[in-house]
Design a protein that fits this description.
Elements (H helix, E strand, L loop, with lengths): L35 H9 L8 H11 L4 E5 L2 E4 H17 L7 E4 L5 H13 L2 E4 L6 H11 L3 E5 L1 E2 L2 E2 H11 L5 E5 L6 E2 L17 E6 L9 E5 H14 L7 E4 L6 H5 L2 H7 L3 E4 L5 H11 L3 E4 L1 H10 L12 E5 L5 H11 L3 E7 L2 E5 L6 H6 L3 E2 L5 E5 L12 E6 L11 H7 L6 E9 L5 E6 L3 E4 L2 E4 H8 L5 E11 L3 E10 L8 H10 L10 E4 L13 H12 L4 H4 L5
Parallel strand pairs: 1-13, 3-4, 3-5, 4-10, 5-8, 8-9, 12-13, 12-14, 14-15, 15-16, 26-27
Antiparallel strand pairs: 1-2, 6-7, 10-11, 16-17, 17-18, 19-20, 20-21, 21-22, 23-24, 25-26
Bound molecules: 5'-O-[(R)-(benzoyloxy)(hydroxy)phosphoryl]adenosine.
Length: 573
C-alpha cells in the first residue's frame, strides 16, 4: 500500500495520474492534493487514519453482521447483507469492464441500491460521481463529459420521470459513456442485477479520491469536488462523534443521500460508521415522515429550513410519537432565529444548526450548546485543524466580530475542483484557502453567523442555483437579448429566483410559462427554472459597465412586494 500518494502541487496545478506497477490509477488526473506538510499534520493528529471506504464497510460487516444497516419501506438490510449486495454489484460492474480509476455517474434516489453501488465502486477502486435525483439532461451530460464517466446508474422511473430516456440522450451526447445500468425495468439498457465476474483486488490507497461530489456552483455548470478516503472518512467520523451517533442511532435520510449533508454529515455513512441504522425515504412530507419516524423510532435526521418549518407546523396536529428523536439537524440555507425558535418550540431541545458545504468545511452547534447559540448561530467548525479567515475584498482580515468573506482550509476541505484549473485560480488563495463566497461573522465563542453571500448563487431552500447557469441557458432563447438572474426573498424558501430579460429588438420576451417550458426542454433541473420573469428594455450597469446585480436584486425585491418593472427601475424607460 502506498500511504502517501500525493506529490506536492500548488493550488490550481494539475497532478498527473499516477499508475502503480499493477496498473491502478492512484491520483485522479485533475485533482489538487494537499501539500505534504499539511497532509503529514493531519495524519499525525489522527484525523487521517489511512482508512478506505471499502475496508470500512468490511470492518463494519465483520463487527456486527446481523445488525440492521439500512431500512427502506418494508426492506431491511443487515450489515452483512449490505456487504453482500455491494459484492454482487462489484462483480456485475467488473464483468462489464469497469475498473479502478473509472468514473461512474450515480443518480439514484434514497434506496438501498445507492449504497450497494457506492460500496461496489469503492471495492473496485472506481469513483462515484454523485448526481442529484433532480438533475436533468443539462447537468447529467455535463457531469458525464467532465468526469469522462464510463457508466451511468439510474432508476427506471422515479417520481414520474423516466431516467432511461435521459440515459439514452446521455449515451448520445457523452462519448465516453459505455454503459447505462438500471435499477428496476432496464428498458433498452443493462439491468444492474445480473451475472458478473471475479473482482480483481482494487487499489487500497487512502489518499486516492473516493468520490466526486457536485457543487452548488456559482459559475456556469456545476463543478466536481474530489473527496479522498482520508478526508471524507474523517468528515464522517468526526461528524458522527460531534453529533453523538452510536449503535442505537436510527438516522432518517429524508434529504437526497447524494447530497453531502445526508450522506456524510454525519448522514447515512455516519450512522453506519457508528454501527447504527439508516432509514431511507424520499417522502419528506410530515405525514409520511412522522409515521416512519414513529415506526422506526428515529433518533436523528437532517432537514433544510423550509422542511423544518413545515414539520414544526405539522406537530400541532400530527399525532405520531416522535419521542425517540434526539437530534434534528437543520442546514443548507439560513435558518432565521424566529424560525429556529419555532422548530425548537415544536421539537424541544433537539435542534442543531449546520452550516456546511460539499467543498468541505462543516460547522455544527454542539448538542449541549446554550439555547442562544443554537438559535442565533450556524455552529462552530468541526475540526481543530479547520483554519478560518474572515476577510475584506482585498483578503485582509477584518476586525473580530465584523462581517466579512469566509476563507477556509483544513483536513477535509478541497484544494481544487476537479479539472477546473481556470476556476481554481480564483476560487482559492495562493496559500490554498477556499473562497467559500459566504459572508460571515464570528462570535467570541468561535461560532459563525452566516450573514449573506458574495457569490452569485440563489439558495432556494437549500437547493443551490447558480445565476450564471440559468442566464447561460436563457440566453439561448431566440427572443432573449440579455438576461440576469437574482434572488427574491421568500417567506418559505428563503429565496426564489427572478430572471430579468431584455428582448431582442422587435421580439417579445418569453413569459414565465414559456421560459419554463424552454428551460425544461433544454434539460435544466426543474428547481433551477426561474420563479419569476420580468422584462426590461436594458439591464442597469455599474460604473465600470458590469450588470448591476445589486440594483436588480433591489428591483426584484420591490417587484415581489408589488411594484412594476417599467416604473421602478428600468434605466431607459
Ligand atoms: C450544504 O452544501 P452545499 O454544497 O449544497 O451548499 C453550500 C452553501 C454554503 O456555502 C452556504 O452558502 C449555504 O450553502 N449554506 C448555509 C447553511 N448551510 C449551507 N447558509 C446559511 N446557513 C446555513 N446553515 O448546503 C451542506 C453541506 C453539508 C451539511 C449541511 C449543508
Amino acid at each position: 500500500m502506498v500511504f502517501i500518494s500525493y506529490n506536492t502541487f500548488g493550488a490550481g496545478n494539475k497532478s498527473p495520474a499516477r499508475t502503480s506497477q499493477k496498473g491502478w490509477i492512484h491520483v485522479l488526473d485533475g485533482c489538487t492534493p494537499w501539500p505534504d506538510e499539511l497532509a503529514a499534520r493531519y495524519r499525525a493528529s489522527g484525523h487521517w487514519r489511512g482508512e478506505t471506504f471499502d475496508r470500512l464497510l468490511r470492518a463494519w460487516a465483520r463487527a456486527h453482521p446481523h445488525r440492521t444497516a439500512l431500512v427502506h419501506r418494508e426492506r431491511r438490510l443487515s450489515y452483512a447483507g449490505l456487504e453482500a449486495a455491494a459484492d454482487r454489484v462489484a462483480r456485475r460492474l467488473a464483468g462489464l469492464g469497469i475498473a479502478a480509476g473509472d468514473r461512474v455517474v450515480l443518480q439514484l434516489p434514497n434506496i438501498p441500491e445507492f449504497f450497494a453501488v457506492f460500496f461496489a465502486l469503492q471495492r473496485l477502486g472506481a469513483v462515484p460521481v454523485l448526481a442529484l435525483p433532480l438533475h436533468r439532461r443539462s447537468e447529467i451530460v455535463h457531469l458525464c463529459r467532465l468526469s469522462e464517466a464510463v457508466a451511468y446508474v439510474v432508476p427506471d422511473v422515479h417520481q414520474g420521470f423516466d431516467h432511461r430516456e435521459l440515459a439514452a440522450e446521455a449515451l448520445k451526447e457523452a462519448p465516453g459513456l459505455r454503459h447505462v445500468l438500471v435499477v428496476g425495468d432496464p428498458g433498452p439498457h443493462t439491468p444492474l442485477d445480473g451475472p458478473g465476474t471475479d473482482v480483481p483486488a482494487g487499489p487500497d490507497d487512502p489518499s486516492d479520491v473516493a468520490l466526486l461530489l457536485v457543487s452548488g456552483g456559482t459559475t456556469g455548470l456545476p463543478k466536481l469536488i474530489p473527496r479522498t478516503h482520508d478526508d471524507y472518512a474523517y468528515n464522517v467520523r468526526a461528524s458522527a462523534e460531534t453529533c453523538r451517533f452510536g449503535p442505537d442511532t436510527v438516522y432518517l435520510a429524508a434529504l437526497p443521500v447524494a447530497h453531502n449533508f445526508a450522506l456524510g454529515c454525519p448522514g447515512v455513512l455516519g450512522a453506519l460508521h457508528a454501527g447504527g441504522t439508516a432509514v431511507l425515504t424520499d417522502e419528506p412530507d410530515p405525514d409520511a415522515a412522522f409515521a416512519l419516524m414513529e415506526r422506526e423510532r428515529v433518533t436523528a435526521t437532517a432537514l433544510v429550513p423550509p422542511t423544518a418549518r413545515i414539520w414544526a407546523a405539522a406537530t400541532e396536529w400530527a399525532e405520531a410519537d416522535l419521542t425517540a428523536l434526539r437530534l434534528l439537524q437543520v442546514g443548507g440555507a439560513r435558518l432565521l432565529p424566529e424560525h429556529a425558535q419555532q422548530v425548537r418550540d415544536a421539537f424541544g431541545p433537539v435542534l442543531q444548526q449546520v452550516f456546511g458545504m460539499a467543498e468541505g468545511l462543516l460547522n455544527y452547534t454542539e448538542p449541549d450548546a446554550p439555547q442562544d447559540v443554537v438559535l442565533h448561530t450556524q455552529g462552530r467548525p468541526l475540526s481543530l485543524d479547520d483554519e478560518i479567515r474572515v476577510v475584506d475584498e482585498h483578503d485582509r482580515d477584518v476586525p473580530p466580530g465584523t462581517t466579512g468573506r469566509l476563507l477556509t482550509r483544513g483536513p477535509y476541505t478541497l484544494r481544487g475542483y476537479y479539472r477546473a484549473d481556470e476556476h481554481n485560480a480564483t476560487a482559492f488563495t495562493a496559500d490554498g484557502y477556499y473562497r467559500t463566497g459566504d459572508l460571515v461573522r464570528r462570535t467570541p465563542t468561535g461560532h459563525l453567523v452566516v450573514e449573506g453571500r458574495v457569490k452569485e448563487q440563489i439558495n432556494r431552500g437549500g437547493d443551490k442555483v447558480a445565476a450564471a447557469e440559468v442566464e447561460e441557458q436563457l440566453a439561448h432563447h431566440p427572443a432573449v437579448l440579455d438576461t440576469a438572474v437574482v434572488p427574491v426573498p421568500d417567506d418559505l424558501l428563503g429565496e426564489r429566483t427572478c430572471a430579468f430579460v431584455v428582448p431582442r429588438p422587435g421580439a417579445t420576451a418569453p413569459g414565465r410559462n414559456e421560459a419554463a417550458a424552454f428551460l425544461r426542454e433544454r434539460g435544466l433541473a426543474p428547481y433551477k427554472v426561474p420563479d419569476r420573469i420580468e422584462t426590461l428594455d436594458a439591464l442597469p450597469v455599474t460604473a465600470v459597465g458590469k450588470t448591476d446585480k445589486k440594483a436588480l436584486t433591489e428591483l426584484a425585491r420591490k417587484l415581489a412586494a408589488g411594484g412594476s418593472a417599467r416604473k421602478e427601475g428600468n434605466p431607459r424607460s
